[in-house]
Amino acid sequence: MGHQTLYICYSINDFFAREAGISLIGFFENNPDYVPEEVFFLDYGIRPANKERLNGIAAGYGKRVTYLDAKSVTDNVRREFPNLPAWRGSMAPNAKAFVDLIFPEYVERLLFIDGDTVVSGSVAELQTLDMEGAALGAIPSNWVTDDIRKGRIVLYSGNSYYFNSGVLLYDLAAWRRENCHQMIIDTLHKKKRFKWPDQTLLNNAIPERLLKVLPLKYNYVSHYFHPRQELGWMRPGNIHTDEEIMESILHPVIIHYVGGWTRARPWHEGCLSSRSGDYFRYKALSPWKDTPLFPPYKDPCPPKTFMDKWYRWILLQMQVCPSFRFVSGMGAVYQSVSRIINRFKKHTDDEPSEGKEAIDFE
Asked: pLDDT by residue (tens digit) across 129-184?
């Protein structure tokens, strides 16, 4: 059996058109051997002017953009399952759970990349990677995986690790064969709350036997740590070796600029990411090269309580303080105090949850 052709996809609204376009330039610059004539964009309201820019980027590399209507699919899901929330007002991320309803049959291997990324290396390895029967390839998130190992979170899937959904590799033939769609629907019937809509849904729905662990370098998220703290924070719960962690730090393929609250997004002023230069390198090649950055990120949910403010202070120290021992010590104190407080805290039905809700254990 020959290798499946690898396609790539972004799912965005107009707000992320610039960032996804810059990511796409990074992809083309570092993957000149990309075989298909098309790249996919799931269209959640991309304005004609930005579509023209995206089309121009693809044409410059001899490719074209194919826009797919995923919004009607996720709108139907939202009507049936109002418990599945939008993310920051957009259902675009949730399309990841319904790929079988969106993509044409000829697409079998699909690399789904979030718009808040930069592709800084070759993904050729993923073209020939043996998926070993898995329907979905992903990169584990070490902190939540650590919580699973310590029994703080139990996923409906029963999985022993938790993955970040910013970069996903699909074998759509296996996805359909294993009826992953029904697993998604069953989870929507069971689960009441979703902390990160698409990510929480996929982690609770898709069993480990259908998952393939991808190298960390394909979803590099730890760039917001101070460089002298990075390895230390990546170790707890990580199923990768120190060598693999260091490879992702030194030679990332896809840089994922997670969370504005980490001040790690270079399209905002005041970015603290050690890898912001990668973004600006490809921005300079883009039709948005002269557009200004956004103002410093404003948290839509600013901390109000002492514990929330303490937590945000610790996050800032992760970025600016060279001492891992000091910051990790402060983090351990915070966790201890937090656990004591939570013993006396009443869980409510609207509490966000990664796995089984607290009510399921009562």
From this structure: 999 999 999 999 998 898 899 888 899 999 999 999 999 999 999 999 999 999 99
How far apart are alpha carbons 282 and 222 in whole angstroms?
Answer: 20
Is residue 135 within 8 Å of 171, Cβ to Cβ?
yes
Domain count of the chain?
1
pLDDT digits (tens, 9 = 90+) for 82-99: 989 888 889 999 999 999
Q: If you average pLDDT over residues 258-269, what whole number do you get?
A: 85
CATH number (domain holding residue 120): 3.90.550.10
Opening angle at CA 290, ends 285 and 293, nearest 5: 105
- Structural domain span for residue 58: 6-283
